Amino acid sequence: MKKNLVYLTMVMLMVFTQTSFAQEAQKDADCKGHGKLAGLDLTDDQQKQVDALKTTHLKENLQIKNQIKEKEAQLNTLESADKADMTKINKTIDEISALKAELHKKNAAHKQEIRKILNDEQRVKFDAHQGRMEGQMHQKQGMGHKGEMGKHKMHDCK
Predict the structure, then answer these.
(1) pLDDT tens-digit readout, 64-91
(2) 42-158 maps to which CATH number?
(3) How far is CA 108 from the centre of its chain?
(4) Residue 153: what pLDDT?
């Protein structure tokens, strides 16, 4: 029995490790030009502008995402208290919602800033890719996967 448990644990660990490596490989592929802007044939000047926008955007979003995680941890603590304070719970939920709305608005503004850099043909391809990514995320959400506001999650490339 003990051998079976050890064997099962080892198998689960290997599956988890392989899944993690596959996710990292996908992230690396996205970061090397196979993501949202792949196939747009950006000029060097456009690429520099996009990179500058992306860096600023990622820094701003990281702060908001961290705040959301903190608020969600607070919410978990509040909800698991012996005597839950619904006023505090509702206030924390409202704060999380406001942060998520702010993040969504920043993402929309970032997308429009990127679109301003592109020519007409690139813009059409970019918009078409956005629609495909949103459709794929909605399909995943329907299967029980957690998505991020109905959009493809943007990786933090370094």
Answers:
(1) 999 999 999 999 999 999 999 999 999 9
(2) 1.20.120
(3) 14
(4) 43
